[in-house]
Specification:
The chain is 25% helix and 30% strand. It has 138 residues and is of the alpha/beta class. It has one domain (2-134): D-tyrosyl-trna(Tyr) Deacylase, Chain: A, CATH 3.50.80.10. Helix 1 crosses helix 3. The longest helix has 17 residues, at 92-108.
Length: 138
């Protein structure tokens, strides 16, 4: 999930671990079992090049920062019962390296990237600009 934001930060145990230094993009990234290096590359390119910032510019065009936060709950199955199932989310040992690789791929494209802490309970604060929220799949 990609959100355009005027400001954002993520805290773990009350301590700030990541923030947008100025207006940019917040990425909530979920990983599923079939994801791998091809999805990392495609997702990084999509995030960097989507023309959703002011003046129809991309994050690369605007040198906009990115705050990337892992979020397995994006793969919740809620069609039956009252308790979500997380079985579609990749387990931590599979997902964590792919989340890190996505951050690295964005940096390699030239973007400034900060992150949350994989697997931690995080408080995410953001001011959604627009609002603009997109669900991305590659």
């Amino acid at each position: 999930m990609l959100q355009r934001a005027t400001s954002a930060r993520v805290l773990v145990e009350g301590q700030e671990v990541g923030r947008l230094s100025r207006a940019g993009l917040v990425v909530l990234l979920g990983v599923t079992h079939s994801d791998g290096p091809d999805q990392v590359t495609a997702m990084a390119r999509k995030i960097a090049n989507l023309r959703i910032l002011a003046g129809e510019r991309s994050a690369l065009d605007a040198a906009a920062p990115v705050l990337l936060i892992s979020q397995f709950t994006l793969y919740a199955e809620t069609t039956r019962g009252r308790r979500p199932s997380w079985s579609a989310a990749a387990p931590g040992p599979v997902a964590e390296p792919l989340v890190a690789a996505t951050a690295d791929a964005l940096r390699e494209l030239g973007l400034s990237v900060s992150t949350g802490v994989f697997g931690a309970e995080m408080a995410v604060e953001l001011v959604n600009d627009g609002p603009m929220t997109l669900l991305l799949e590659v």
